[in-house]
Prior knowledge:
Elements: H1 3-67, H2 75-84, E1 88-94, E2 100-103, H3 117-122, E3 127-134, E4 139-148, E5 151-158, H4 160-166, E6 177-181, H5 196-199, H6 208-220, E7 221-222, E8 225-226, E9 234-238, E10 244-252, E11 257-264, H7 265-273, H8 276-303, H9 307-312, H10 321-347, E12 357-358, E13 361-362, E14 366-372, H11 381-390, E15 393-399, H12 402-411, E16 418-422, H13 423-431, E17 465-478, E18 501-502, H14 507-518, H15 527-544, H16 550-558, E19 564-568, H17 569-578, E20 582-585, E21 591-599, H18 607-617, H19 620-630, H20 645-648, E22 663-664, H21 673-688
Parallel strand pairs: 14-15, 14-16, 18-19, 21-22
Antiparallel strand pairs: 1-2, 1-5, 3-4, 4-5, 6-11, 7-8, 9-10, 10-11, 12-13, 16-21, 17-19, 17-20, 17-21
Helix pairs in contact: 1-8, 1-10, 1-11, 1-19, 8-10, 14-15, 15-21, 16-17
Amino acid sequence: MKPVTLFFSVFFLALLIVNFGATYSYGVLEKEILEEKVLEHLETTAQSRVNHINEFLSKQKKIVKIAATHKELSYEELQKIRDTTLAFSEVFVMDSSGKIIASSDLSIIGKDKSDNIYFIEGKKDTYIKDIHYSETLDESALTVLTPFNKGVLIARINLEVLTKIVSDRTGLGETGETYLINKDGYMTTSSRFLSDEETFLNEKIDTKNSRACLEDLEEYYVEEEAEVKEHKKLVSYLDYRGEEVFGTHAHVLEMKWCLLAKIDKSEISNKIRGGSYIRLLITSLVVTLGVTLASLLFWVIILRRKRNILSKKRKKIKYNKKKIVLFIVIGLLIVGLIVGLFAVNKFFPNLISSDTSVSGGTLSKELNVYNWEGYLDENDSLLNDFEKEFGVKVNLYTYDSEEKLLDSIENYEGFYDVIFAVDSKFKQFISEDKFEKLNKKNIPNLNNVDSNFKNPGYNSNWEYGVPYLWGTTGLVINTKYVPEDTDSYEVLWNPKYEGKIGVMMNEGELFGMVAKYVGSPRIITEIRDLRNINDFLKLQKELVGEYKDAYTIISEMASEDLWLANTWSVDAGAMMEANPNIKYIIPKEGASKWVEYIAIPKGSKNKYTAEVFIDYIHRPDIYARIANYQSTPGVNIPAREFIDKSILENKAFNVPDEEWDKLYGSDDFDLSKKILNKRKEMWDELMEK
Length: 689
């Protein structure tokens, strides 16, 4: 065999071995990284489900506690509470002796429950009895109890909503699942692989994952103060079917529940074997052949031409042929390996990636968000979930007035990355070039937003901001005290209700409402029209006393300290759930319609991360947490699958077709500075009265 042929044969085999070795190393690394990503995804999924569960439980307690502010509850009122809060299957009252004295189910009135643990605990404080089988309902249920008139108010919750939250398998492949177990280790929600009859309080889970979770609770749960240390990720274990799985867990501390999340190890292995190695091996072979042929071509074209020159100098140059050949082979192998690695990285860029970059940009380390206080989910917990999933620290700053928002946007350019702003201010900011245009490729969940909100003239196709929440501003009345057929703002000036009228502490809403009532132009241009509105507000102030913030109106309407008020539909929904006698009205004069937007201010240093955050907000499961906590159906269509039915069917949000024409947008932006300044002067005087 000629030396050249031998050389290139050895070179080809060596390069092939090196590239195949690199391919194998990449495969091993890919497997490790994929497994790590699966575990991280399971961690995030488990914690997200737990946060959603906590919000659900908190909301049910809140509804029961507000209902308990009533002086008494009749059969009809208990039925209304049950029917308007669709998570409730049964609502009843026990007196101080434990006897049922009122119920939405007449058949249980008179029963003695004095020896029941939930009666004893319910007299002390608001309490949730663990998942159990209810004989009266013939189904599994949770029970919420709270003190009421020296007795107890009880609401049984069917598990449909809870089960839907827990069993959501989005992003869990073909074998992944999440489920709850109680403090004794028994499964309390449905399984992907077992029937409901087999699971509910029948299937005891005894796995490495369940034991670790229950040990956490047992070791770290302290009476009235639960603290669980961060647990270690579980690599793999055998589940209740005997299948090897990857899994992790999270805790519902209040209930001493464990939420277990897992996925079959075989599914992950199949993804790794599903063509990746074959494609890598083919790539390695092609690269090896290519480098070998290129080297051969180099030998033929370049080196042969210089053969004569080299032969003339052969006598003058002393060299070790073996060493030169060795150096050449090593050099070519290094070149071939580099080319091979480049080719793999080029054609398989996602095989290894340890940084936080995502298609379209690189995530920043921090993100500054500016929003109304309490305007996300409960305790703003979705921000913690975002931090865990994306590795970005979120700094939340809040404002309590539109004036503060205006001041911050004006004086802190470049500091905030995401802001939440109502449409009237949003329009103003657009006109002043205060927002960045959105790269909608980084916000695919825009497709989830209701197209009815798509084309306002100031934000066509959501060029500058994404709708967040929407609503109207109308009237709420308590039909026990105010006629049910009330349909006008006129009722807010009725002396009959002096001291029982609530009026929001909001300049724009109030002047806009009175303008509609007295028949002034929508866009006021004359000071005399403004004075006319102000005169009506002065008359009303004598009946109202102090203007009230939104939270005070919610509380006092629910407790019946107020009988009527102007309010936002979002707040009206919460009132209607708490008190079945409350009705929301869009008056015949009309009501304002508002849309809250999420946008990126000019000068943001983290625009890409801000767009990822906006996309995260509109992920259906995340958005549903916001909607459930804010008691509004919102603007995200797919999220409605996870939103409480009681919210979706609440009349405060279901505007009849014939009433849409009564709705109008905010005109603050269209008013002249002269009118706005005069209005502010009048408002300040009203606030001092």
